[in-house]
Every structure is written in structure tokens, then in C-alpha cells.
From TrEMBL:
Coiled coil: none annotated. Residues 147-257 form the Styrene monooxygenase StyA putative substrate binding domain. Signal peptide: none annotated. InterPro entries: FAD/NAD-bd_sf, StyA_sbd. It comes from Amycolatopsis magusensis. This is 2-polyprenyl-6-methoxyphenol hydroxylase-like FAD-dependent oxidoreductase.
Amino acid sequence: MPKILIVGAGQSGLQLALSLLEHDGYEVTVMSARTPDEIRAGRVMSTQCMFHAALQHERDHGLNFWEAETVKVEGLGVSIAAPDSSRALDWVGRLDDYAQSVDQRVKMAGWLEKFEERGGKLIIHGVTTSDLNSLAGMYDLVVVAAGKGELVQLFDRIPELSPYTQPQRALSLAYVHGMKPRPEHPDFSAVRFNIIPGVGELFIIPAYTLSGNCEILFFEGIPGGPLDVFTDNPDPQEHLDRILSLMKQYLPWEYDRAGEVELTDSRATLAGGYTPVVRNAVGELPSGHAVLGMADVVVANDPITGQGSNNASKCAASYLDSILAHGDQPFDRQWMKGAFDKYWEYAQHVTIWTNAMLQPPPPHVLEIIGTAGAKPEVARRFANGFQDPSDFQHWLLDPEKAAAYLASV
Ligand SMILES: Cc1cc2nc3c(=O)[nH]c(=O)nc-3n(C[C@H](O)[C@H](O)[C@H](O)COP(=O)(O)OP(=O)(O)OC[C@H]3O[C@@H](n4cnc5c(N)ncnc54)[C@H](O)[C@@H]3O)c2cc1C
């Protein structure tokens, strides 16, 4: 019976662990730095909006416990602020299938409890490299799914796939109750992508948290610019007040909805930033054992395109297929590389698109965004690209293909 150790109880680690338990013949251990109660009582970790294909992986394994009560995200809107803070552009594209965002505090705590209930072995322990060094020999396969934590150092950065050496955005967010309904389309919910040229972006994301449905106000600020003002770690209310005051200044139409908001809880704010990176998926331990990196450990993109949890879900589904297809054969380095390469066939498209979105938009992208305001099919294709970003290579990312597409609509 293959013994599998998964380090890290996040989207990818727990999805893989729970889906492996459905199959006879695997002994699955998860090591988590925190207990379910500690996760629930902790700080928010993400905005985690997940689109249809990723949600479907959860449904396939009966893990969509919060689907009925979570607000359905049925569109993706884009606005651009003019220099005088008026709204230069505003449209919404409908998603073919809805997206949802379940606070990772709710989801990971619930999944961790379910993992134990279903017979998985849970060890609460923050794992060090030296722990892994001695543990690895006791398992047939060790998967490191520890997000952006220190264990990433086991995996070498691949420079040719990692164009950035610094964070490209300063991130700050707050989960709030009390936003007024969106006047543009009060009948359905949508993620809103507000662009402030040269300054950054504000995403507003409907979500489900510990206290029910809410909205997340999420600024992505260009480093050193006017939105990069959270490094002093303000207290939660001050954090929210700063977000609101920036909304008032740059995006008054969104501020108008936010007059009565309050934080969902005292741990509902977050600030930070990280460098996008692609790493070698096979990590080498001093003892000579190899470990397989998963999701953010090996492919970490900036959240500007909201793809990390989606990628984590898709990576877990892809690794599950690779594990099952391998049967009783040894999980050696060659198998690990093959498992990653299969996932990368998809993930490369997310990385290329996300890295491009961190740059000022080139003229052909501006033309597409402008045309989407007049042609709903263009808006719809852009919105649905968030559920399968591999489509963008065929039109958005190449000036000639973009021109040909626009001429055809
Ligand atoms: C501000 C922000 C907004 C985001 N918005 C979105 C979005 O809208 N949509 C989207 O799809 N993605 C979004 N993401 C990205 C998404 O949250 C991550 O990409 C995703 O959670 C990665 O999943 P993972 O399984 O790789 O790691 P994680 O979900 O981060 O899980 C890693 C787990 O490992 C644990 N761990 C770490 N080190 C150790 C250790 N040494 N020992 C034991 N356990 C350890 C951690 O505590 C954590 O529980 C956002 C991220 C941020 C920061």
C-alpha cells in the first residue's frame, strides 16, 4: 500500500489528500501547521475566487460543502478610472458558469476535519527541512504543498520562466459586510476589476466567510505608489479606513456603495506581496530523498488574475491522475518530473497571461477592453478566459491574433 505524506493543508494539499482517500490502497498522512480551530480563528489568507473548472474538481470529490449558501458570481466586470476619477469605461461580461469564493478559513478548517473523519492521518506540526529529511524515507511519496512558506527553498527557481525578481504589486484587502447592491446590475453578482492606470487595481469580490456572504475589497498597488501604504501593519479598522479613503479618491463609484461597510471580523484584513516564480518541481533533501512540489510551491503567480486557488485545484486533480495511473511503481524523480510536466502543459498559460497582466496594457489589449464595452461577445470571451486562461493565447496575448479576432466580431 503506497504511503503518501502531504505537507501543507491548503487548497492543493487537502484536495489531493481527500481525493486520494476515495481510492483503496493509499495510506495518506497530512501535516498541517495549524488545527482547524486555529485556522478559523486566524487571519484571512486570500480572496480565493474560483471559477467553474476548479469548482467542478471539488464537486467531483464531494468537497463543495458550502456551494448552496455561497453567493454565485455570474459575471466579471471591468472599469477604468480616468485621471479625474470619473469612469472612463465600464462593462460586465457574463460567465457561462458561475464562480464562487469560500473563505479559506472556512474551507480548509472544514476539509481538515473531514480528512480525519474519512480516515486520513493528521499530524499537527509546522514542518522544517530537517523534519522532512528524516521523514521522507518512511514514505513512498512526499508532496510538499506548503504554499509560499519556507519549504519552497527546497525547490530551485527556474530563471527563464520567472521574469520578476521583486513583488510586482503591494496587496491589501478587507472582507466587509454592508456594501450596497451594485446599481449597474443589481440582479446578479460579479467580480469587478477596477483599473487605475499607473496606480494599480481594485477588485471587489463577492464571497462567503465565517459570518455568511460578504464582499472583499482588494487593492493591488504598484510598488512605491499611492496604494502601497500598508507596510506599517495598521490595525484592522485603520486598514479598512485607508482602503475606503483610497476608493473615495480613485474610484468614487465604488466608494458610493461602501458608505455603511464594516469588517466581517477582527481578522478580516491582510497586506503583503510576493514575487511571481516558477520552480523546479523536484526538491532534493540532504538525505538524498526527492520530494514533489505542488501548486504555489512550484508555480506562484501574482493574484492580479485570481488564479492561484484555481491552479491549486487543477494541480491537485492532475497529480491525483498521475498518482493513480502509476499504480504500484516507485514514485521516483522521473515520475515526479512527468507529473509536473503534465500540470505545466496547462499552468504555463496562466503564468504567461498573469505575468503579462502585471505590465501596462499594450495597445491591442486596450483595444480589446474598449471593444468589449460595445460588443458583449468580446466581454464574454474575456470573462470566461478566467475559467480557462489557455484561451488567451489564441487572441488576447498576440497583436496579430487580436486584430484578426476583432475583425471577425
Ligand atoms: C491577497 C491574495 C489574493 C488571492 N486571490 C485569489 C483569487 O481570487 N483566486 C485564486 O484562485 N487565488 C487567489 N490567491 C492565491 C491562492 O490563495 C493561492 O494560490 C492558493 O491558496 C495556493 O494553494 P496551495 O495549496 O499551493 O497553498 P496554500 O493554500 O497557501 O496552503 C499552504 C498550507 O501549507 C501550510 N504550511 C506552510 N508551511 C508549512 C510547514 N512548514 N509545515 C506545515 N504546513 C505548512 C500553510 O499554513 C497552509 O495551510 C490569492 C492570494 C493572495 C495572497
